[in-house]
Structure formats: C-alpha cells, structure tokens
Design goal:
The protein is of the alpha/beta class. 49% of the residues lie in helices and 17% in strands. Helix 6 packs parallel to helix 9 and helix 14 crosses helix 15.
Length: 343
C-alpha cells in the first residue's frame, strides 16, 4: 500500500495508535492512510455497556437492535450486498438496477426473476433483513439477546457495593461532578495526542480527581491482570493520566486537587463473578510513561510511551516505516539483523 506521508505525519496519536505503532510502524502507517474498522460482537457488547452507563441518551443513535435473523446462504449475501450498493448509490439508480448488479455479483445458479420473486416474497425475511441493514447504516448492530446481556452487566456494576461508588453514587452526590466520555487533547513530547476517558469524577469534598475506565471481559475478572499486559492497558492508563493532568492544570478551580490512581472497573459479560476494581500503581504509570522495562514473568522489554514517541518522531523525519528505528539502524550498520535469542 502506498502511504500518504502527509496524513501519517499529521496524525493525532491515540493510545490505540501507540499500541499499533509499538507492534509495527508499517501497520500503524497503513492504518492511518486507510483505516480499517474491526468490529466484533464482543466489542459491540462492551461498547453497549459503556454507552448505557456513560451516555444512555445516545444509545439509539449509536446502536441498532437486530430484530431479524440474517438469511442463510446466497440470499443473505444478496441482502448484504444490496444494502452496500445502496449506500454508495449516489446516482440514485432505480432499485431494480441495483438489484440486477448485486445478483450478477453473487453468482446465483437460479435465474434473476426467480431470485427477485424470492426476495419480494413476504413469507421470507429477506426484505425485512435488507430494510434493517439500510436503517442501521452507521450504527453498531447488536442482537436483542446481546443487549439483555449488556443490561445485566450494567445492573451488576450499579448494584455491586464497590463498583457502585464509581457508577451510581457520584451522579447523585451534590458535591461531585461526573464527566463521561471526557475528550482529551494534549501535547506530549511535541506530538499531538487525543483520548476519551470513560468517566472522570471530581470529588469536591476531598479535592480528588478520579479517572476510571470500564472494561468488559469474556473471561474471569481474575484474568484481567493478564489482559492488562496483553492489550497494553498499562499504556492506556498512563496515556489518559497524562492527558487528564494537562486538563486539570487548565482548570482554575482544581489547582490544589490531587489526581487519584487510575482505576479499571472490570465486569464479566456472563456475570459469573462480581465486577471488580483494578488500580494502577505509581510504578505502573512511571514505567509505562517514561522508563519502560520488563513486565513481571516476561523477558520482553516494553517500550515506554516516551520512547515510542521519540521513535515516532524519527520515523516521521526519516520517512521510513518498514522496520522499527532499532532495526533500521542495526541493518544499516551491519547489513543484517541479529537473532539474539538467548539471555
């Protein structure tokens, strides 16, 4: 893929971009040039939980609840392709012409008129499914069953003795402010960054700012420490804290407030175990933000956000994205890359 260097160099960094860059500069640059959205049922359910807690009034704008099953086989493929074609039908071609084009691309053995008759037969769900796809464009699709599961998770978070202190209690407290989906724009080491914090609670009684992020998991909540490492949540917490510090510093009424340790509020999608709260330590933040290091039980060196930002600057200046900075330097000096597989 040809990279749009101007677009890559002007890109505002998010924590997901940093995590991708840490994996591969090339993949990061390609994603910026041509973003690909990956949306699975699991992530959709997690997003639904977030929305129901932090922005319930926007649920119908962001989600479409599927009330019809996807037809099997080629007819289901036809409905999907028809909806896709209609989305780009800027010339307002007649529906029959769009139908003909979709039919020709599916590869039916049945004749066109037979397929058209099946599609229009009210006894089948084809038109109902097609109409749902049209009405749900731009929204996240969730089934009725998945929505009920998300609502059960929300109920657990709102009623658990520990998590309700962050989910329910601050909303009703007269001396607490709650910022949901807080938008953060800040500079770090000369690079423009952005982030969205699920919930920030301003406790005016104790003069504390409390940043939190809601996570859902298909595993046991007790497995979250592994996910914290696997998905780079340590980097996410440190990144958001940096943005929050920048925001707090600009608020005249919060000058003498303390920012609390970053907390992840974690719930299982099947609600087998109670939801739990996991808190980052100061060392977690220091390593993730500045020093990097080896994670417990691992020999793999993790680069800090500061180190990644410095590498990002190098890549932008040099215009080289196929390898990491370290690999480029070593390859130029030696003409090869060291395997170096033993400690």
């Amino acid at each position: 893929m040809e990279l749009d260097i101007f677009k890559v160099n002007a890109h505002v960094m998010s924590v997901s971009s940093l995590n991708l860059f840490a994996t591969s500069p090339r993949k990061y640059a390609e994603h910026v040039t041509k973003p690909e959205r990956v949306d699975t049922s699991y992530f959709t359910k997690g997003s639904a939980v977030d929305c129901l807690i932090t922005e319930p009034e926007k649920f119908d704008e962001e989600f479409a609840v599927m009330n019809v099953n996807r037809p099997a086989g080629m007819m289901g493929d036809l409905c999907k392709l028809l909806a896709d074609y209609e989305e780009v039908n800027t010339d307002n071609l007649p529906f029959d012409d769009v139908f003909d084009a979709a039919y020709n691309n599916i590869g039916f053995k049945l004749g066109l008129e037979t397929v058209r008759k099946k599609f229009n037969d009210g006894k089948n769900n084809y038109t109902k499914y097609y109409n749902f796809l049209i009405s749900s464009k731009g929204k996240k699709v969730i089934s009725a069953k998945e929505l009920e599961q998300a609502k059960e998770v929300v109920h657990a978070l709102k009623t658990n003795v520990h998590t309700k202190k962050y989910i329910v209690d601050p909303v009703d407290h007269p001396l607490m402010e709650v910022y949901d989906q807080m938008e953060l724009f800040f500079d770090f080491q000369g690079i423009k960054c952005k982030g969205y914090l699920d919930r920030v609670i301003i406790d005016h009684v104790n003069k504390v700012v409390k940043p939190t992020d809601i996570k859902t998991t298909g595993k046991s909540v007790f497995e979250f420490p592994k996910s914290f490492i696997q998905f780079g949540y340590f980097r996410q917490g440190a990144f958001y804290l940096q943005g929050l510090k920048d925001w707090v510093a600009k608020q005249d009424n919060l000058k003498d407030y303390r920012i609390d340790n970053f907390k992840f509020i974690v719930a299982e999608m099947d609600c087998y175990n109670d939801p739990m709260i996991f808190e980052m330590t100061e060392k977690d933040v220091e390593c993730a933000l500045y020093t990097g290091g080896k994670l417990k039980g691992s020999t793999y060196e993790i680069k800090s956000i500061t180190e990644l930002i410095e590498d990002l600057k190098w890549h932008r200046e040099e215009g080289k994205w196929n390898m990491t900075k370290k690999e480029y330097v070593q390859y130029i000096e030696k003409g090869s890359l060291s395997l170096d597989c033993f400690e």
